Amino acid sequence: MKKIMTFGRYTKKRFGEKVYKIPISISGFTCPNIDGTVAIGGCTFCENDSFSPQLQKASPLDKSKKFYLNLQSVENPLLDQQLAQLQWQFQTLSKALKKSHNAKKFLVYFQSFTNTYAPLETLKALYEKALSFENVVGMSIGTRTDSITDETLAYLSQLAQKHEVWVEYGVQTLYDATLAKINRGHDSANIRSTIAKTKALGLNVCAHLIYGLPDEDASMMLHSLDETLNMGVDSIKIHPQYVVKKTALANSYTKGEFVPISLELYTQLLIESLKRIPATLIVQRISAGIENDSLLAPSWCYNKNSTMAHLRQALKANNIAY
Ligand code: SF4
Average pLDDT in the 140-154 region? Predict the structure, then answer.
C-alpha cells in the first residue's frame, strides 16, 4: 500500500504533532487580473467571496473604505485595520480548533486573493504579526506566480531560516491556451520561471492544479501534473473545477458551453496522479467542495465528506492510502 504524505502526516513527522492551518482573508488585497493590471474580471471561475465570506464579514474592517493594494502602492491606509483583522481571525479560529480538536500548533494560511500583491512594508507587517502569535510555527502564503517580487522572495527566504514558510502558487494548468481561456493573465513561462526562482531560494513550494478546466482532456491534466512535478515542487493540491454562481464560468455552464468534470473521471485521474507522485511529496488536497448555495455544478462537489469518502475508498482499492 502506497501511503501518501498528507500535510497532517508531514507535520506530525516534522513537529511531533499535527499542525492546524488557520485560513486568513484580508480585505484590501486583490489580484492583478481583477484590478486591470494584467486583465479584468479575475479568473473565470473565481467568485472570491466563496473562499471565506464569513471571515471577512465577521472580522473588524471598515467596508466603507474601498481601497485595494498592488505592487506599486506607496501607502496603505488600511494597515492597522488589516492587522486587527488578522488578529481577530487567528484568535477566533485557533480558539475554536483548540476546543474542537485539542489543537496546539498552528500555521497561518493567507488564503484569499493574492497575498504577495502589496508593497513589502505591508507584507512584512502582516507576516511578522502572524508569526508572533502564540503556538504559530509558520505560515503559508497563497499567491500568483506573476505577483511576487524578488525582494519579497528574498525576505521570505530569510523568514524561512527560523519558521516554516510555504509559498502556494496557483498553477492550475501548464497549457497557455487554457490559461488564456480562464483569464489568468499570465502564461506558463511565468509559472516556470517563478517556481524555479522560489526553489532556488530554498523556499517550500506548493502548487495548485485544477482538473476539469475548459477544453482540457485527461492527458492534458496529467501532463500538467508531470510538468509541475518536474519543477521540483514540494507539495501539490489537486481539485476539481466546480462552477460557482456569479462567475464567467457560470455563464458558460448555463449556455451549455462548459461541462463540469464527472466524479468518475476525476476519480480515475486522481488514482493515476497519486501513482505518479513520489511518496516523499506532500499532497495537501485531493478534492474541494463548497457547501452552500453558491455552487452551481457539479453536484458531487457539494458534500466534501461524501466525496472524500468515495475518493479514499477508490484509492484504497488501488493500494493507495490517503
Ligand atoms: S488569482 Fe485567485 S483570487 Fe485572483 S481571480 Fe484568480 S482565483 Fe480569484
Answer: 98
Q: 198 C-alpha vs ligand 1 centroid, how far in Å?
A: 20
* Residue 59 reports pLDDT greater than 90: no
The total domain count for the chain is 1
DSSP state of 300: G
Contact 130, 24 (CB under 8 A): yes
What CA–CA distance (Å, rounded) separates 58 from 151? Answer: 33
Q: Which three cell numbers stand for residue 33?
A: 487580473
Measured from the Cβ of residue 313, the count of other Cβ atoms closer than 10 Å reads: 10
Spatial separation of the C-alpha atoms in residues 170 and 145, rounded to whole Å:
7
Give the DSSP per-residue string, 193-213. Answer: HHHHHHHHTT-EEEEEEEES-
Note down the domain range covering 229: 2-321
Alpha-carbon distance 156 to 133, whole Å?
18
* CATH code of 89's domain: 3.20.20
Instruction: Look at residue 148 and give its three-state secondary structure.
Output: coil
Distance CA 4, CA 9 (A): 9
Cα distances from 268 to residues 76, 265, 274, in angstroms, run 47, 5, 10
Q: Which of 146, 92, 152, 102 is nearest to 122 (CA)?
A: 152
pLDDT digits (tens, 9 = 90+) for 230-240: 999 999 999 99
149-167: average pLDDT: 98
Cell of 168: 502556494
How many whole angstroms from 31 Cα to the centroid of ligand 1?
Answer: 6
Q: Does the pLDDT at position 63 exceed 80?
A: no
Report yes or no: 212 and 264 within 8 Å, Cβ to Cβ: no
Is the CB of residue 113 below 6 angstroms from any atom belonging to ligand 1? yes
C-alpha cell at 177: 491556451
C-alpha cell belonging to residue 243:
462552477
Is residue 212 packed enough to be buried (19+ CB in 10 Å), middle (13-18) or exposed (0-12)? Answer: buried
Nearest protein Cα to ligand 1, atom 5 = 42
